[in-house]
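Hey, resending since the last one bounced:
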Amino acid sequence: MNAMTTPPAGHRPGHVPVMLAEVLAMLQPRDGAAYLDGTFGGGGYARAILSAARCTLWAIDRDPAAIRRGHALQSELRAQEGETRLHMIHGGFGDMQALLQARHVPALDGVVLDLGVSSFQLDEVERGFSFRTDGPLDMRMDDTGPTAADIVNTMAESDLADVIYEYGEERLSRRVARAIVAARAQAPILTTFQLADIIRSVVPADRSGIDPATRSFQGIRIHVNDELGQIAAGLDQALGLLAPGGRLVVVSFHSLEDRLVKQALNRAAGRLPAPSRHDPRAMQARAAAPSYRLLTTRALRPGAAECHANPRARSARLRAAERLPLPDITDNQPERRP
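The structure tokens again:
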């Protein structure tokens, strides 16, 4: 399937929602249905879903800047239609169940999640997500909690090495952590350029062309925002919130995210590893009929044209599943004798 490479009309230039055509094909928006965009970001998916069908969309984001963009889209839709079918919620998608229940939202017909850092966050120098330009070492997706500067200037060397290794998949994590601790003993590390230069001093460039600081920045960012915890919680809750026939569509951008998505969807579809015969609970779960079917047996990848037009799409992976109809319990009732 070829990826859509042009953004919807009225969309901000430079912000292109990744694998948009594939997301819409999997989600199949329809009139009268209710959907959730758990990672509103720049609103690319939200706008496209609302344009594809006369539906209602709830949108969550932990970033106050994204919420402001959502309110602007609400005003635009209200001016066009006399009403808005978009409802914004400030919070993390890992708390979607409580956030939606507090607003008495019924079962959903579809959920879409676009994982990781958004293009807006990468492009805003003051957010400190990117080392392409110098900015404060922040990396928070919201405006609360410890910053990346707090982490690199206070965390114990061994813990810092573990964060960079486990979340950044940097094999030289101990060397990086040692260099950071040595540098902060001389002066606090406060900017993205400072941290990137420290990492580059101990991690040699390789043939991939990826900047040596990339993996360490990823690891620290994931830790700052508890991204994997949010993903695990969000996937579990999204699967529980869908109505029969509802669909979950997830776009991820690196192996740690994709692994969590793959495992969650496989469990929901009954594709579990063989359980131990000594664990009766696992055997019972294995025997239970699956409540989901996979729409993607393998992750979908963006097309060559999209990758060329939008280099940020190159690492994207899309997986999707559909909730099966509830079993008809009358079929299993014993026949009553007169």
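DSSP finds 14 helices and seven strands in the chain.

Sorry for the duplicate.
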